Amino acid sequence: MTLIKSISGIRGTIGGKVGDNLTPIDAVKFASAYGTFLKNNSNKEKLTVVIGRDARISGPMIHNLVANTLIGLGIDVIDLGLSTTPTVEVAVPLEKADGGIILTASHNPKQWNALKLLNAKGEFLNADEGALIIELAEKDTYEFVDVDHLGTITPKEGYMDTHIDEILKLELVDVESIKKRKFKVVVDAVNSSGGIIIPALLERLGVEVVKLYCEPNGHFPHNPEPLKEHLTDICELVKREKADFGVVVDPDVDRLAFISNDGEMFGEEYTLVAVADYVLSKTPGNTVSNLSSSRALRDITEKHGGSYNASAVGEVNVVEMMKATNAIIGGEGNGGIIYPETHYGRDSIVGVALFLTHLASMDKSVAELRASYPQYYMSKNKIELTPKLNVDMILEQIAENYSNQEVSTVDGVKIDFPTSWVHLRKSNTEPIIRIYTEAPTQEDADGLAGRMMEELRVIAGI
Predict the structure, then answer these.
(1) Catalytic one among 106, 192, 193, 348?
(2) Which of 119, 146, 273, 380 has a 20 to 30 Å separation from 390 between CA atoms?
(3) DSSP letter at 338?
(4) What's the rounded Cα separation, in Å, for the pair 304 and 310?
(5) Cα radius of gyration (the chain)
(6) Are 194 and 348 in contact (CB under 8 A)?
(7) Contact 376, 439 (CB under 8 A)
(8) Do the beta carbons of residue 117 and residue 146 sit within 8 Å?
């Protein structure tokens, strides 16, 4: 069982001992630290925080603990109830709130939950802010208000519909063109809040929806990370229903994957590629993804005359790079779409709407669209190390060994070869090195990964 504290919040497994797991006491401590952080950095007499949760079984418990902790600090709460990560991110600035908390462990299994923390813009906190909240939580010194100054909880249902309204207002979402195509789409929302918002979006776009695992009861029918090995049911159903494609989201709806009409994976890495291709065709500009994302985005960006930049891994880092380079779209290769015309956060809802508009503008199937993009294949591996090994020194040696290539040390070591790349990163929570490779064929990607893993073992002496 695990409790992980990071700049983006706190996540862990439900039950167990305080400090080792995400217990009620840990949830209260971290909510107290976040509320104290907001109060320490504001001159306002009254603060407001938006909260929402995914459909996890532990959601109501953690939700109530966090909400009541905030009102104990004198902070008003706008309670969205069952929601999505991007919906809370959209709600914070619309409600002119001072922050937001999303209660979700994203793609982690059902025994996990988490508190994801937002600033007044509805964006994730930066590293310094996250570190300060962790420090406040460890000090365990909070000052709660007296009975006359308690905060209030204001329920606001229907915010997922408000989120959809915001998406449908976008200039690049062509509602009428989508309706004319009369698409048929299968949706796998892993029995979480995506089972409400994705079908609702599709129905407003005139799409026939076939629901699979769309009951928001928190009982995930398969591993909720949207990877090929977890998605056999929807792949079969897309073919059986003769659907145009399938949509898969994770429990908090910030990761998006498509299933092509032939029942094959469109590829998580290519979600951003396809949506960016459409956006760039209408509004040329720059793009950003992280160092572990496919080179295909760079190719598409340059095709449209823009510049591509790679950030360190992590949504906060992608957003910072997007702002610095005036990128018009960006995200992560795990299916995360960040479209600043809505907000600076990964958003599957805007991703689906833009993808549908892209598809409606051409006479191609989803499989044909996927085949039209640069073909790259990835291999994702890891090596377990003993805690005594100096991982930083090992990575420095790798960088030195390949100094004649294009090497980035922004986040671990990334080596760009003419037709392939490898990205090596150490985990912040485990004694492992992650090895991501990409090449024009799966055999080449796997072969490059194997060679790098062997080289790492030689350097580490294992």
Answers:
(1) 106
(2) 380
(3) E
(4) 17
(5) 22
(6) yes
(7) yes
(8) no
- On the CB side of 136, CA atoms within 13 Å amount to 23
Superfamily of domain 377-460: Alpha-D-phosphohexomutase, C-terminal domain (3.30.310.50)
Q: Which of 251, 30, 58, 25 is nearest to 125 (CA)?
A: 30
CA 29/CA 37 separation, integer angstroms: 12
8 Å CB contact between 10 and 26: yes
In the block, tokens 């294992």 appear at 462
Catalytic residue list contains 372: no
In this structure, the chain runs to a length of 462
Query: What is the DSSP secondary-structure string of 251-275?
Result: TTS--EEEE-TTSSB--HHHHHHHH
Q: What's residue 6's pLDDT?
A: 73
Is the model's pLDDT at 285 over the cut of 60? yes
CATH architecture of 163-371: 3-Layer(aba) Sandwich (3.40)
Residue 179 near residue 205, CB atoms below 8 Å: yes
| pLDDT at residue 31 tops 60 | yes
Q: Which region among 138-142, 156-160, 350-354 has the lowest average model confidence (pLDDT)?
A: 138-142
Tokens describing residue 121? 């813009």
Q: Matching CATH topology for 3-157 and 377-460?
A: no
Residue 201 has pLDDT above 90, yes or no: yes
**Half-sphere exposure at residue 436, Cβ-oriented, CA atoms within 13 angstroms:** 21
Q: Is the pLDDT of residue 7 over 70?
A: no
Q: Taking the chain, what is the end-to-end CA distance rounded to the nearest angstrom?
A: 28
pLDDT of residue 431: 67
* Per-residue pLDDT reduced to its tens digit, 35-72: 999 999 999 999 999 999 999 999 999 999 999 999 99
Q: Is the pLDDT of residue 343 over 60?
A: yes
Task: Report, as an integer, the average pLDDT of 292-310.
Answer: 96
Output the CA–CA distances (angstroms, integers) from residue 335 to 142, 248, 290, in the order listed.
38, 10, 12
114: nearest Cα among 229, 282, 272, 252: 252
Number of H helices, E strands in the chain: 15, 20
Amino acid, single-letter form, for residue 145: V
pLDDT tens, position by position, 215-251: 999 999 999 988 888 999 999 999 999 999 999 999 9
For residue 372, the surrounding DSSP H or E stretch is none
Instruction: Confirm if 118 and 91 have CB atoms less than 8 A apart.
Output: no
Q: How confident is the model at residue 24 (pLDDT cuts 50, 70, 90)?
A: very high
Domain locations in the chain as residue ranges: 3-157, 163-371, 377-460
CA dist 190 and 213 (Å) reads 5
